[in-house]
């Protein structure tokens, strides 16, 4: 297993954020158009965080990395080790 840290980890996180953002906005658009249901911003942001957290849990993330620590504290992620 490769230990993710530094620039690679930052690049991975940025890609995860972008892809999750696009997917959740697309999903919300479809929900509004076809089901007439709306989610608030907090729910959408929470869904994005959940996707990122799950994807990081699938990988071997170096918990001593500065990028990891910033992500964990600023985004209040839990259990990403």
Task: Report on the architecture of this protein.
The chain is elongated, with a radius of gyration of 14 Å. The mean pLDDT is 80. The protein is mainly α and 81 residues long. Helix content is 70%, strand content 0%. It has one domain. The chain contains three helices and no strands. Keywords: Membrane, Transmembrane, Transmembrane helix. The chain crosses the membrane at residues 6-26.
* Overall 3D form: elongated
Q: Which ranges are low-confidence, i.e. pLDDT below 50, for 5 or more consecutive residues?
A: none
Work out the strand percent. under 5%
Structural class by helix and strand composition: mainly alpha
Helix content: over 70%
Number of domains: 1
Q: What is the end-to-end distance?
A: 14 Å
Nearest-integer average pLDDT: 80
Largest sheet: none
What is the gyration radius calculated from CA atoms? 14 Å
Keywords: Membrane, Transmembrane, Transmembrane helix
Transmembrane segments: 6-26
């Amino acid at each position: 297993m490769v230990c993710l840290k530094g620039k690679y980890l930052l690049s991975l996180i940025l890609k995860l954020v972008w892809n999750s953002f696009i997917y959740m906005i697309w999903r919300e658009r479809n929900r509004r158009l076809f089901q007439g249901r709306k989610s608030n911003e907090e729910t959408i942001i929470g869904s994005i965080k959940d996707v990122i957290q799950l994807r990081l849990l699938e990988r071997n993330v170096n918990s001593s990395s500065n990028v990891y620590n910033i992500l964990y504290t600023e985004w209040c992620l839990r259990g990403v080790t």
